[in-house]
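*** C-alpha cells ***
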Amino acid sequence: MERGGRRVSRGMLPLLAIHALNEYHRLPSKPPVTAGLLVTNTLIYLRPAFLDSILPSIDQVWFNPHLIFKYGDLKRFFLSPFYHVGESHLVYNMMSLLWKGIQLEMSMGSAEFASMVLALLGMSQGITLLLAKSLLLFFDFERTYYYEYAAGFSGVLFAMKVVLNSRMENYTNVHGLIVPSRYAAWAELILIQMFVPGVSFLGHLGGILAGILYLKLKAGYSGPDPLTTIIRGVTGVFKWPLRFVQSLFRRQRISGRGTVGGSHTRIAPSIWRCQSCTFDNSGWLSVCEMCGTSRSDSDLSSHQLSHDSGVLSLEEIRRRRVERFS
C-alpha cells in the first residue's frame, strides 16, 4: 500500500524486523555490514519522508540492458539491486540476505565481506548485461532478455550462495530437493525458473557466474584484495575517534584507586589485539568486538598471566602493609 508516494507495510516487514532483531540478539558480535544492507534495502522500499524526494523512482532504475547500452544509464546498473517490486519480494530477499550475510561476515570479517558484496554486485550486473547483449548479437534473443526489466538483490544473493557453499561437502535441501551443497545455487536457479513466473533468469544466472568468478579470482590472489584494504583504511579513519574515547576510559580504569571495604579487589583487564582486524579489545571479551573473530590461545595465556601477576602484586602490597603496622 502507498501513501503519497511512500509505502506502508502490510505486516510482513514487522515480522522481518522481529526475526532480524532476534538473530542479532543471540550473536556474540553484531555483523554491521549485513545490518546496513538490510536497513538500506528496506528504507529504499518504504521511501520515508526524509528520503522520498532524494530517491529516484523504480521506473528510473529498472535494470534494462537496452537502456543501459543506449544511454549509458549507470544508475540502472548500480541502483536496481536495491529496489524491490513488492513487500513479499523484499522480505524473501532480506531473509535470505540475513542468513547468508551473518554466516559470511562472521567468518570473513566485516571489511572483507563488504569488499565481496561490492565485487559481487558489480560482477553480477556486468555479467547479466553481457549475457543479454550476447544473446541479442549471436542468437537474436531481442525481446526475451535485451528489453527485460528487472530489479532486486537476488543476483547478489545467488553469488553469495555460491561463495557460502563453495567449501561444503554435505548435502542441502533446496525446496524439497536434496542436492550437494556446492550445486545448490544451480538447483535453485532451475526450480525458481520452473515454478515462479516473472523472475529474471539472466539476473540469477549472472549472480551464479559472478560467484564462481569471484572464487576463481580469490584463489589466484594471495593476501587481502585492494578493495578490502581500502575499506579497512576508510573505516579505520572513522573508528579512530571511537578508539580514542575508549582509550581514555581504559586509562581511567587502570589508574583508578578502586573501591574500599570490598571483600574482593577488581583488577582491570588487559587489552588484547585481534589478529584479523587489529582492533584492541577488553580482556573480558572472548571474541573481537569489531569483527567477531575468536580470541587466540596466545592472547588468553597473555591475559591470564597479566591477571595473575596483578593479583600477586596486590597480595605482596597487603603483606608489606601488615608487617609495617604490626
